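call fold(seq) -> tokens
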Amino acid sequence: MKRSLRRHIEAAINQTYNPRRSERRGHVAVVLSFPEGAFADAPRWSPGPDFTPTAGEYAWLRDNGDGTSTAVVAGVGPKELPGLDGGEWTDPEVWTATAPNDSIFMASGAMWDKPHRITWLLREPRAVVHRELYSTHPSAGVHAYWENFEERWGFFPGRMHRGEFPFADRRRFVVLHTEPGFADLPNEVQLLDVAVMLMRTFGAKARAYAYDPQRRNTRDPMNTVSDYTLSSVLRCRERSAARR
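ret:
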């Protein structure tokens, strides 16, 4: 496993970086795809089987088939004006809202990247909004679990839902980056070491990707998470070793 992944990382580096040339450098990435049983102890909650997750563990959307959609967003905080955001509440809430598909919020696509804008529906007379306190909602326990997981391991295993990424589609994943020739980022040896550790710990499969400038402005796996995830995992490993 380790030898095979090393070869693929080296091949990706060779495609990405030639120190004798002046062409632009870019990231080499390893995408880890986790099986469903990897996080069996994680709590789960969703509004129902007909809802599609749109933003991690925080937002879901259902087309009702009658010209309306129902959106659920967990952890909606009070927003300040200007614009269409605003509210007088002081604690985060869970919002369930049904509104016509041609309403500003539903038509904007915000549920896929800015679900907190569900507060726009405060000014939509055709919307029906139900609000619950977030702190006592089941979704709060789900979020607390993953926050603790990220604190321990240094990464959050996201999930792909939209059928755009064949390797990790609809499975939890994480992306680890390095940039050949860039001293401030972890090197390829650390990339390999962390990738193998996570593969062995969680039963993940790995795929190495060379830099491709055509992907820079697309919703590609390499562009969905921070460049510093690998550094975060390394820091957590160092803290864990120091406690022993």
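The mean pLDDT is 84.
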